[in-house]
């Protein structure tokens, strides 16, 4: 037994040393000092990320490397963030996404899982990107009905303790309408799939990659085992739900199109966009592939939009001094509603104060580092430092969001009037939607959803924190989530 332990220790130490041999031919970014072998910087990064990365930046400069969960990762500051985001031929987010989420074994009917180029092309060629005005009435109606269901009139004040959960259900109702159509989005099982899918997949993000401490990539192998053995697959239930509703809708549309010919009224939603792609064969329909692709779009849209919207609610509840001016703006805009209470699409551009508040809330999302990229080939940065193929480069987003030259005076304070550009606009000083060729193509839909929801919420409720204080984010490593503390909704006196 003793000999086995000694041999195991020698093996681990050997692997550890081999993993940390630096290529003498490369001028790599400095590796931050650490005291605990094998563990490296893992604990400090996981439990005190904001302060730790700030110290590293101060001591090592705009580019440094950490040893986290068995892998050396290079973090780039504001000076080189754009270089990473703009060089899609060198830095690829999709590769790491596929490593974190074992889609190759979860999905057996599609082979483009995690291909951001493919999904971006599908969105940019869809009505979601090019004809958002067609969804204006449907989005508003579904948001209003879902808000009534999950928040209510609040004649007596109502305290919601997990605002993210409530917002997720509300956003899910609206995006389901846009993705799968008005008819199918009325079903509770569809809404449940939209609301719960990301949570079920997130297990792969939440499980610490402890096996990577032994050898990089071992975690990827281990987490695929229960799926390959048929013991657990988080997508199965949701894809089966989508298959049922997709099949009903596709078959119905094909029958009606054949029956009515030129007089057939084309449905407007993402499913119909899928049906009009060249790869769609009406004589050999792969319903599982359709449902699987829909589920990936659900994963990409629901959590990010819901988290952003929940943060806007909490940020406004934490700062009631901005409520009146936002109320007056929305009240004036509301005068333009039609007889059904629907705002015209053009009114979104008139929500200047709300738009600026949303952008500031997005800036304050709280993620310390985001958008890790896989290095596709050896690369030399403009400062002469180099990273090899197979390396990981992460964006130190805090460095951008707390820089006075990029954000203006007092960058660490929440000031919703600092912005004079739309919340959806991507720039060197705003990383929420990525950058370069692969910036988020769904950002316009996300911002529209948030604006329409907040328009209704501001007009109908007084919103404040139960604590009466500014609520801090809940942090897990570099990621921040909306506070679970109570948010009070109270019907606004007319």
TrEMBL record:
Keywords: Heme, Iron, Metal-binding, Monooxygenase, Oxidoreductase, Signal
Binding-site positions, heme: 440
Extent of the signal sequence: 1-20
A Pfam family this chain is assigned to: p450
Needed cofactors: heme
Name listed for the protein in its UniProt record: Cytochrome P450
InterPro entries: Cyt_P450, Cyt_P450_CS, Cyt_P450_E_grp-IV, Cyt_P450_sf
Keyword presence, Transmembrane: no
The UniProt record lists the keyword Iron: yes
Domain of life, source organism: Eukaryota
Family under the similarity heading: Belongs to the cytochrome P450 family.
Coiled coil location: none
UniProt source species: Rhizophagus irregularis
UniProt GO MF annotations: heme binding; iron ion binding; monooxygenase activity; oxidoreductase activity, acting on paired donors, with incorporation or reduction of molecular oxygen
PROSITE patterns reported in the protein's UniProt record: CYTOCHROME_P450
């Amino acid at each position: 037994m003793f000999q086995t332990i000694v041999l195991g220790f020698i093996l681990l130490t050997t692997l550890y040393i081999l993993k940390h041999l630096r290529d003498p031919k490369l001028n790599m970014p400095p590796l931050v000092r650490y005291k605990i072998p094998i563990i490296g910087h893992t604990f400090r990064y996981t439990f005190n990320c904001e302060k730790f990365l700030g110290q590293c930046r101060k001591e090592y400069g705009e580019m440094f490397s950490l040893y986290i969960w068995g892998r050396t990762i290079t973090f780039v500051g504001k000076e080189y963030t754009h270089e990473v985001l703009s060089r899609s031929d060198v830095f690829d987010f999709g590769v790491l996404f596929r490593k974190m989420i074992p889609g190759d074994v979860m999905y057996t009917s599609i082979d483009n899982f995690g291909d951001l180029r493919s999904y971006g092309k599908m969105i940019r060629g869809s009505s979601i990107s090019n004809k958002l005005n067609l969804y204006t009435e449907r989005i508003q109606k579904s948001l209003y009905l879902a808000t009534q269901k999950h928040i209510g009139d609040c004649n007596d004040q109502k305290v919601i303790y997990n605002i993210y959960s409530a917002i997720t259900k509300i956003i899910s109702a609206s995006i389901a309408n846009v993705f799968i159509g008005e008819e199918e989005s009325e079903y509770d099982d569809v809404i449940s799939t939209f609301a719960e899918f990301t949570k079920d997949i997130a297990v792969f993000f939440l499980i610490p990659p402890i096996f990577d401490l032994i050898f990089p990539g071992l975690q990827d192998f281990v987490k695929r085992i229960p799926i390959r053995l048929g013991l657990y697959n988080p997508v199965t239930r949701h894809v089966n739900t989508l298959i049922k509703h997709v099949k009903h809708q596709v078959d119905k549309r094909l029958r009606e199109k054949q029956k009515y010919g030129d007089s057939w009224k084309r449905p407007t939603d993402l499913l119909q966009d899928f049906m009009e792609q060249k790869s769609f064969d009406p004589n050999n329909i792969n319903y599982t592939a359709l449902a699987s692709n829909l589920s990936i779009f659900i994963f990409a849209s629901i959590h990010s939009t819901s988290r952003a919207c929940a943060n806007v609610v909490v940020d406004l509840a934490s700062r009631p001094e901005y409520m009146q001016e936002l109320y007056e703006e929305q009240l004036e805009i509301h005068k333009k509603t039609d007889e059904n209470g629907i705002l015209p699409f053009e009114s979104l551009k008139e929500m200047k104060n709300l738009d600026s508040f949303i952008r500031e809330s997005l800036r304050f999302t709280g993620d310390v580092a985001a958008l890790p990229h896989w290095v596709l080939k050896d690369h030399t940065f403009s400062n002469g430092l180099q990273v090899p193929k197979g390396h990981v480069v992460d964006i130190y987003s805090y460095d951008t969001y707390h820089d006075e030259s990029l954000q203006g005076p007092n960058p660490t304070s929440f000031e919703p009037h600092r912005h004079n550009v739309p919340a959806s606009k991507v720039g060197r000083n705003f990383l929420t939607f990525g950058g370069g060729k692969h910036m988020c193509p769904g950002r316009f839909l996300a911002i529209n959803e948030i604006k329409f929801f907040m328009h209704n919420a501001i007009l109908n409720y007084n919103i404040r924190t139960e604590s009466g204080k500014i609520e801090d984010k809940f942090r897990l490593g570099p990621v921040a989530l909306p506070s679970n503390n109570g948010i009070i909704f109270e019907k606004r006196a007319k």
